[in-house]
Amino acid sequence: MYNDVRAINELVERESAFIDAITSEIGKVIVGQTQMIERLLVGLLTGGHVLLEGVPGLAKTLTVSTLCETISAKFQRIQFTPDLLPADLMGTVIYNQQTGQFSAKKGPIFANLILADEINRAPAKVQSALLEAMQERQVTIGDETYKLDRPFMVMATQNPIEHEGTYPLPEAQVDRFMLHVKVDYPTQEQERQIMDRITLSLLKESSETAASTPYSSVNRLVTPLQILDARKVVGQVYVDERIKDYIIDVVLTTRNPRKSKLDDLVDMIAHGASPRATIALNLAARAHAFMRHRGFVTPEDIKAIGPDVLRHRIIRTYEAEAEEVTSEQIIKRIFEAVEVP
């Protein structure tokens, strides 16, 4: 067993080298936001979709687009609006008068990396169409079903403070996202860096040139094939039986807090995490270890990635909302109570 883990460890050390290169390349454009970048890479390494939530101006869209620029894959940015139709996303069937035949015109969903900008601005039909593609990895246009290219990943953003003209994602649909990442403000030092970097970039060139290229460009470092190969290695990362039991205990406690003697949370949780959370926590923890060049998962990996896996899967009761008990507070209590192997 020890030799097997050591072999996996050596394999991970070799195959995960590109992670540092991507992170460094993104750092040319993005100041800070380390957690957001890491979570996007976790999604990339597992095939899981990521929902980014934060107020405007925190570089959510810029971070996603910069990450995609480091990968030699097809990227599509889709701006979600209230008048968007499912056909605008998936494609439609068009009639050719010259040939008298119908043919499928594929929509922007046919790409490797999708940025669904402000996903909560689109109506329910469009959201459902996207989330079906996320789950099934295929799209039906007319009578034909088309498989989506691999790798396929959706990175969605939403604004938590503006509710006018928005259509919040239902809990059952949000569950299809592997991670729900809360994006916070930069630190004081990072804010100073952002101000100096962008101001200098804008002043350095002529106003016309600077307006079109205010940020540094990045190099393409990874191919889709390398991403798929890395996913295979992530799948080999060792997870001990006790770690698996730990994952199960955490998820089951969200459904039955009494399991870990958290009787005060019984009236705070309406619905616990689904089995998707168990799968996501296992996969995300493997990717988290891979990014740290380790071939095995530790309890710290579970604790680090757990809040992003669980926060959108725990449905609070009205009582919890009235007492302003957040999902983050519930998750913190659960991790404090569940015994660590």
Task: Characterise this structure.
By secondary structure, the chain is α/β, with parallel strands linked by helices. Helix content is 48%, strand content 14%. The chain has 15 helices and eleven strands. Strand 3 (91-96) and strand 4 (101-106) form a beta hairpin. Helix 11 (241-255) crosses helix 12 (275-291) and helix 12 (275-291) packs across helix 13. It is globular and about 70 Å long. The two termini are 18 Å apart.
Roughly how much helix do the residues carry, as a percent range? 40-55%
Average pLDDT, rounded to a whole number, is 85
Low-confidence stretches: 210-214
Secondary-structure element pattern, one letter each: HHHEHEHEEEHEEEHEHHHHEHHEHH
From the structure above, extract its key features.
341 residues; alpha/beta; five-stranded parallel beta sheet; two-stranded antiparallel sheet
What does the secondary structure layout of this molecule look like, with pairings?
Elements: H1 2-15, H2 17-26, H3 34-46, E1 50-53, H4 60-69, E2 75-79, H5 86-90, E3 91-96, E4 101-106, E5 113-117, H6 124-136, E6 138-141, E7 144-147, E8 153-158, H7 171-174, E9 179-182, H8 188-204, H9 207-212, H10 224-234, H11 241-255, E10 269-271, H12 275-291, H13 299-310, E11 315-316, H14 318-322, H15 327-337
Parallel strand pairs: 1-8, 1-9, 2-5, 5-8
Antiparallel strand pairs: 3-4, 6-7, 10-11
Helix pairs in contact: 3-12, 11-12, 12-13, 13-15
